[in-house]
Amino acid sequence: MKTINKGGEVFATDPNDINIQQAKLDSLLIQGKRRVLAAREFVWTAVSTLKDLIDQTFERIHRLLKSEVTQRQKIAYVNELHGLVTSHLDP
Questions:
Q1: Would you say which domain of life the source belongs to (predicted)?
Q2: Cβ proximity of 85 and 57 under 8 Å
Q3: Is the per-residue pLDDT at 2 higher than 70?
Q4: Which of 36, 55, 79, 88 is 20 to 30 Å from 18 by CA-CA measure?
């Protein structure tokens, strides 16, 4: 323990004690870490969703190219697919 002389009185301080500013800083750092982790999880979820959307789009285009429908029907289907993808990307 360390002693501090203030105005004639002697106070014993614990070296493990922290001041209010340090406690605030620690709290802000912990909040920041939590927010970064939450943001990271959100980004990875969005990336995963986007990957699923891309995979589904390529699968549908692949099936469309193999199908025996008319060119006009293929164009209509691609336009519908474009609308579907756009609606998922622009909430």
A1: Eukaryota
A2: yes
A3: no
A4: 36
DSSP symbol at 9: E
Q: What is the DSSP string of 12-31?
A: EE-TT---HHHHHHHHHHHH
User: Rounded to an integer, what distance in angstroms lies between the CA atom of residue 87 and that of residue 81?
Assistant: 10
Higher pLDDT, residue 74 or 5: 74
HSE value, Cβ hemisphere, 13 Å, CA-based, for 85:
17
Domain locations in the chain as residue ranges: 2-89
pLDDT, position 33: 96
Pick the more confident residue, 18 or 3. 18
9: β partners:
6
Measured CA to CA, the distance from residue 17 to residue 87 in angstroms comes to 55
